[in-house]
Amino acid sequence: MYQQTRHVSYQWAEDDFTLPEGVSHLGRSAPIDGKKYVMYHGTTSSNAEAILASGFRQSKDGMLGPGVYLSRELEKASRYPIEHDESDRVVIKVSAKVGRVIAINYQGHPRQKTWHNYGFDTAWVPPDCGMVKSGLEENCVWDPNRIRIIGTIKPRPVQSRCGYGAEGYM
Predict the structure, then answer these.
(1) What is the mean pLDDT of residues 60-84?
(2) How far apart are CA 134 and CA 130, in angstroms?
(3) Residue pair 141/134 in contact by the 8 Å Cβ criterion
């Protein structure tokens, strides 16, 4: 007899929602200075609770230096923290006012970690520029006060069967 095995995978999806007034959704082009965008921040369940209770805090360092790391792509944020169990990840959906934006489009950019010293509010890594393995865009917002939490997104378990026959059939 054939033995059925089950594997749990996770799906990241948003419920349909209305954008807050003055907020734009995803685009693969550069964020426009002064606009507000829906962005996402991936974290653990416990860190999400702390952020929801006290707000975002600037990271001490990272690829773009200090700031709050966000992406306009849910797919990117849902991967974080990397190497953390997916079932314990949470994505925080936010509205971020980007202010003045600089593109950091290659490793070793002269302002890669010092962009804020030159009057920029957000550093943006364009998609497919070679700085991020996934090829997805990333943003670093200097001032956490530019970010407003909209809600959270948790992974939904999806049961799949591996074994004899077509998917969903016994």
Answers:
(1) 91
(2) 9
(3) no
Quote the DSSP letter at residue 100. Answer: S
- State phi, psi for 157 to the nearest 5 degrees: -65, 140
Per-residue pLDDT band at 21 (split at 50, 70, 90) = low
Nearest-angstrom CA–CA distance, 138 and 126: 7
Cβ-contact 113, 65 below 8 angstroms: yes
Alpha helices in 4-73 (DSSP H): 45-54
Is the pLDDT score of 99 beyond 90?
Answer: yes
Three-state secondary structure call for residue 120: coil
Helix (H, G, I), strand (E, B) or coil at 160: strand
Residue written as tokens 């950019």?
Answer: 109
List residues bridging with 122 in a β-sheet. Answer: 101, 141
Query: Measured between alpha carbons, how far is 33 from 42 in angstroms, rounded to an integer?
Result: 24
What percentage of residues in the chain have a pLDDT greater than 90? Answer: 59
Is residue 156 a contact partner of residue 10, using CB atoms and an 8 Å limit? yes
137 falls in which pLDDT band (50, 70, 90)? Answer: very high
CB 76 within 8 A of CB 145: no
- Structure tokens given for 154: 């948790």
Residue 127: is the preceding peptide bond cis (ω within 30°)?
no
**Calpha distance 122→60 (Å, rounded):** 15
